[in-house]
Design goal:
about 300 residues; alpha+beta; 4-stranded antiparallel sheet; 12 helices; 17 strands; about 30% helix; globular
Length: about 300
């Protein structure tokens, strides 16, 4: 009996868990609809419901397995969105969906402060409502009580891993979607974060792609039907992690990843930060592998449209 791994993907439409045997491939898959609340103002994912749903799908996927066989658990999620936490690590607000348009005003303000071309040269991103920095600026403007109490910000995959392990850390493939992370230096950019009223110490540390952020606690293990102490890793941005799983790792490899949104991802050796890339509408980011970069184009509604049909 070989060891198996569990992968968890927090997507915009579904939360999915898969058990993978390195020798035999996929063993089981479980999924639930992603908890989502939409009103006339925008769309959010209630964080408590998101954690409970994640626990349900992992428990279902792992049901019937000998817990001793599970070697580890990795978490991927949609990018850009996250949750503000207080000094005790408790969530202060729901997760503003990555596609929520409300931070558009703040995105325009970022562009005016730094310039589109300069932002792209540092971050590989264009100033849009979806980027984390615009979301944080929106939180500063529209939720000042929450912003004042916020001790730290976590991407969704990080926050769930922290809830299960107490460990903190994120992946470069998530950090690079924030517009607060310098893609050339591979580090948080204090000047850009300050535009949203944030400090570097409020952002998650980047953890090496082969390292876990922590070990599964006894309480979480009981809810998941697993054994305590197994390593839990933040795998990263779901599209990029999918590329790694599909073997899209060499410069020139191309992936068409259809989730709620559709991303066409090209692997490059170095960040393609030329202004021609920006003007063509692409974004540039970090691959899961530390010596690779990505060039991404996409549409916001693809799998979601299929689901609607």
């Amino acid at each position: 009996m070989t060891d198996v791994a569990i992968g968890l993907d927090i997507g915009s439409t579904h939360v999915k868990a898969v058990v993978v045997d390195p020798g035999a491939g996929v063993v089981t898959v479980a999924r639930r609809s992603t908890p989502t609340r939409t009103d006339g103002r925008g769309t959010v994912h209630p964080f408590g419901a998101l954690v409970r749903t994640a626990e349900e799908v992992v428990a279902e996927a792992a049901g019937g397995l000998d817990p001793e066989r599970v070697a580890g658990l990795g978490i991927a999620s949609f990018a850009e969105a996250g949750v503000p936490l207080d000094g005790r690590g408790e969530p202060l607000d729901d997760v503003l969906a990555w596609f929520d348009p409300r931070p558009a005003t703040q995105a325009r303000r970022l562009a005016e402060a730094v310039g589109d071309a300069a932002l792209f040269d540092r971050t590989g991103l264009r100033p849009e409502a979806k980027v984390t920095l615009a979301k944080l600026a929106w939180l500063h403007d529209e939720r000042p009580d929450v912003f004042r109490r916020m001790a730290e910000w976590r991407f969704v995959a990080d926050a769930i891993a922290a809830a299960w392990t107490g460990g903190l850390g994120t992946a470069a493939s998530l950090a690079c979607r924030s517009m607060g992370w310098d893609l050339r230096r591979r580090a948080w950019d204090p000047e850009l974060l300050a535009l949203a009223g944030m400090r570097v110490e409020q952002m998650p540390e980047i953890v090496d792609w082969t390292s876990p952020v922590g070990a599964l606690s006894a309480a979480a293990a009981s809810r998941l039907g697993l054994r305590s102490g197994i390593p839990v890793a933040v795998a990263g941005h779901d599209h990029v992690v999918g590329g790694l799983a599909a073997g899209v790792v060499a410069p020139g490899d191309l992936l068409d990843s259809i989730g709620t949104a559709e991303a066409v991802l090209l692997v490059t050796a170095d960040p393609a930060l030329e202004d021609e890339t920006r003007r063509a509408g692409f974004s540039v980011g970090a691959h899961v592998l530390p010596d690779r970069s990505t060039l991404i184009a996409g549409i916001q509604t693809s799998g979601a449209f299929v689901d609607w049909v």
